[in-house]
Amino acid sequence: MSSYSVAVAMAIAIMCSSCVSSGVMSQRRTPSPDASLELEIYSRLQNDAGDHFSALAVEVTDGVATVYGVVGNPSERARALAVVQSTEGVKRVIDRLR
């Protein structure tokens, strides 16, 4: 092995050991509050109406949930929006349902 290869290997080893010791490599990414809220909303919609709401999409930005998709009738629309609005952390709901 050439001296250049040894130097590169040593540099990589030093960088990796410093990442591990500083915790950079061991840090787990936690979902953002908005991403966690989206997951909670999807779960609640699935638990509430199963397949009826499976085609809906939800985007959350700063606690504002926008609901997209197609519902079968006005009562399904009202129920879907009520489920989203009643989710803890949702500040406002924007209805983009058709």
Describe this structure in words.
- The chain has 98 residues and is an alpha+beta fold.
- It folds into 2 domains: 1-29; 33-97, Histidine-containing Protein, Chain: A, CATH 3.30.1340.
- The protein has helices at residues 3-22, 33-49, 74-85; strands at residues 57-61, 64-69, 92-97.
- A 3-stranded mixed beta sheet has the order 1-2-3.
- Strand 1 (57-61) and strand 2 (64-69) form a beta hairpin.
- The mean pLDDT is 81.
CATH topology of the largest domain: Histidine-containing Protein, Chain: A
Strand order, main sheet: write it out: 1-2-3
Using DSSP, what is the number of strands? 3
Number of helices: 3
Helix content: 40-55%
Are there runs of 5+ residues with pLDDT below 50, and where? none
Radius of gyration: 23 Å
Topology as a string of helices (H) and strands (E): HHEEHE
CATH-defined architecture of the largest domain: 2-Layer Sandwich
What oligomeric assembly is this protein in?
Answer: single chain
- C-alpha geometry: elongated
How much of the sequence lies in strands comes to 15-25%
Q: Give the class from helix and strand content and strand pairing.
A: alpha+beta
> Averaging pLDDT over every residue, what do you get?
81
